[in-house]
Design goal:
This protein has about 280 residues and is α/β, with parallel strands linked by helices. The chain is built from eleven helices and eight strands. It has one domain: Vaccinia Virus protein VP39 (Rossmann fold), CATH 3.40.50.
């Protein structure tokens, strides 16, 4: 079992490799960084091409949902994207928030921050910024964000309760989040759990759905709702990298174990309801 520091360093290395390679190589590799003939990330990715504000240069195919589609972003909102990568969801959020809004992307990989800033510069965006930082200690002041989004990233954070407590801290009262992530409804084989590629692809790092939702509620969020849920089917050729033929058959004999979910939650407005919002 890797400790938190080892996990973070492994993820940072993988995503640095992804940021530094060309998009074509990324899309043809199994974990976004490597030489596999098939890939883990793209079996989870939802299609962005019809989404307003989409920037192909910023789409590294690393997500597992479309959180911005469900995030109820309004014009003028301040939006924080956790694990912003090359800026894909930030640019979609900017389209929704408009010129009067502000978008802050957070990533702990320097190469991704540089890539995202370059993409923003190409578009001439002045209300999108990218900050280097850890999601367990988000470099954003208390009560800053109207909306928080994240796409297949919270799962990579070793201390998930702390990460969701940070989301709660940076949200304004009455603010909300929409987060896409990978969860489990059963047990993964140990060889998959121990695979670095599968971990960085958010599969081996997945926790049980019930535990994930409990962490959110324990952080203080209300009106927690599953906005979308879909099974993730790992193809045989990818399973074959980690399991023998017998183990693969046992795994496939189970019901779907891995799911992509998009979950919504609100930070209750503590003022309203107590007669102080007159």
């Amino acid at each position: 079992m890797k400790n938190s520091i080892q996990i973070k360093e492994m993820v940072k290395q993988k995503y640095s490799e992804i940021a530094l390679q060309d998009k074509e190589t990324n899309q043809s590799s199994c974990c976004g960084a490597g030489g596999c003939s098939t890939e883990v990330y793209n079996i989870m990715t939802d299609e962005y091409t019809a989404v307003e504000g989409y920037n192909p240069d910023a789409d590294l195919k690393l997500g597992c949902g479309l959180p911005t589609q469900f995030a109820k972003i309004a014009e003028g909102d301040t939006v924080v994207d956790l694990g912003s990568g090359a800026g894909n969801d930030c640019f979609v959020a900017r389209h929704e928030a408009g010129e009067k809004g502000k978008v802050i992307g957070i990533d702990f990989t320097e190469a991704m921050i540089q890539k995202a800033r370059a993409n923003a510069d190409k578009k001439g965006f002045t209300n999108v910024e990218f900050r280097l930082g850890d999601i367990e200690e988000i470099p954003v002041s208390d009560s800053t964000a109207d909306v928080v989004v994240s796409n297949c990233v919270m799962n990579l954070v070793p201390d998930k309760p702390k990460a969701f407590a940070e989301v709660y801290r940076i949200l304004k009262e009455g603010g909300h989040f929409s987060i896409s992530d990978i969860v489990l409804t059963g047990e993964l084989p140990e060889r998959i759990k121990n695979a670095a590629e599968m971990y960085a692809g958010c599969v081996a790092s997945a926790i049980q759905k019930s535990d994930y939702l409990r962490i959110i509620e324990d952080a203080g969020f209300s009106n927690v709702v599953l906005q979308k849920e879909k099974p993730i089917i790992i193809p045989d050729d990818i399973l074959g990298n980690y399991l023998n033929e017998e183990e693969t058959e046992v795994y496939k004999s189970n019901k779907n174990i891995i799911f992509s979910i998009t979950v919504y939650g609100e930070k209750q407005d503590l003022c309203c309801g107590r007669g102080c919002c007159m």
